[in-house]
Structure formats: structure tokens, C-alpha cells
């Protein structure tokens, strides 16, 4: 087969807390949508500044109206299970840059920002 010279890189389904922190520090060069998929009470208890709350159960009905399919989206939950399910669902719907935060807000609090309460 002839080589086309096109290299397509797929993002991993998960992003680590350190990788996300680096991405947010460099935000001026790339917009990142922090999609918190927990319940409202969880979001009130602890969240990353600038994140958008769309509970997991609401994602299918709200994703296409509220999220850009081209955007870099990082889904966040408590420990990374719900957010992984949402990231996989989003990818299957054509949101190719969707990822899940490994370890969730709990890992973010433990590894990056201890001022965010753990619950």
C-alpha cells in the first residue's frame, strides 16, 4: 500500500491527574472542557474550578446540545468509573477527543489539589 504521510493519533481513553494538570496550565494553547458527570450534591461537595456539571444520566440528552464534538473533553466523576463510561459513550457518538480522568476527583484532590475536599 502506498504511504499517505497522514498519521492519526487517538487519545487514550484515560488521562492522568498530572497530564490533566499540565494541560490546564497550558490552556491558553488548547481549550479543555472539564465535564463533571457526578450528581449535583457531589459537585457541590468538591469540584475542579471551571468544570461543567452534566450528571451521567443526563449526558445522552444534553451532549449534542451542550458539547462541541471537536472539543477536548475530560469527563470527571468520584473515582473514574462513571467518567470512563461517559467517555466511551461520547467516543461512540463521534466525540473523538473525550477522555476520562483516571481516579476521578478523589485522585485529583490527593495528587494535585489537596484543597479540594475528599468524600
CATH topology: Oxidized Rhodanese, domain 1
Shape, principal axes of CA atoms: globular
What's the helix count?
A: 5
CATH superfamily: Rhodanese-like domain
CATH architecture classification name: 3-Layer(aba) Sandwich
How many domain modules? 1
**Biggest β-sheet, characterized?**
5 strands, parallel
Question: What would a concise description of this structure say?
Answer:
Helices cover 36% and strands 15% of the residues. The protein is α/β, with parallel strands linked by helices.
What are the key terms here?
single chain; 119 residues; alpha/beta; Oxidized Rhodanese, domain 1; 5-stranded parallel sheet; 5 helices; 5 strands; 15% strand
How would you characterize this protein structure?
α2 links the parallel β2 and β3. This protein has helices at 17-25, 40-45, 59-66, 81-92, 104-111; strands at 14-15, 32-36, 52-53, 72-76, 98-101. By secondary structure, it is α/β, with parallel strands linked by helices. It is globular. The chain has a single domain, classed as Rhodanese-like domain (Oxidized Rhodanese, domain 1, 3-Layer(aba) Sandwich).
Amino acid at each position: 500500500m502506498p504511504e499517505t504521510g497522514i498519521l492519526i493519533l487517538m487519545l487514550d481513553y484515560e488521562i492522568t491527574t498530572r497530564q490533566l494538570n499540565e494541560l490546564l496550565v497550558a490552556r491558553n494553547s488548547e481549550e479543555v472542557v472539564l465535564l463533571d458527570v457526578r450528581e449535583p450534591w457531589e459537585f457541590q461537595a468538591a469540584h475542579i474550578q471551571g468544570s461543567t456539571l452534566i450528571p451521567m444520566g443526563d449526558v445522552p440528552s444534553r451532549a449534542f446540545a451542550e458539547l462541541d464534538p471537536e472539543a477536548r473533553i475530560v469527563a470527571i466523576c468520584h473515582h473514574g468509573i462513571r467518567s470512563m463510561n461517559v467517555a466511551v459513550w461520547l467516543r461512540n457518538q463521534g466525540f473523538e477527543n473525550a477522555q476520562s480522568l483516571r481516579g476521578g476527583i478523589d485522585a485529583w484532590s490527593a495528587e494535585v489539589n489537596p484543597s479540594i475536599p475528599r468524600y
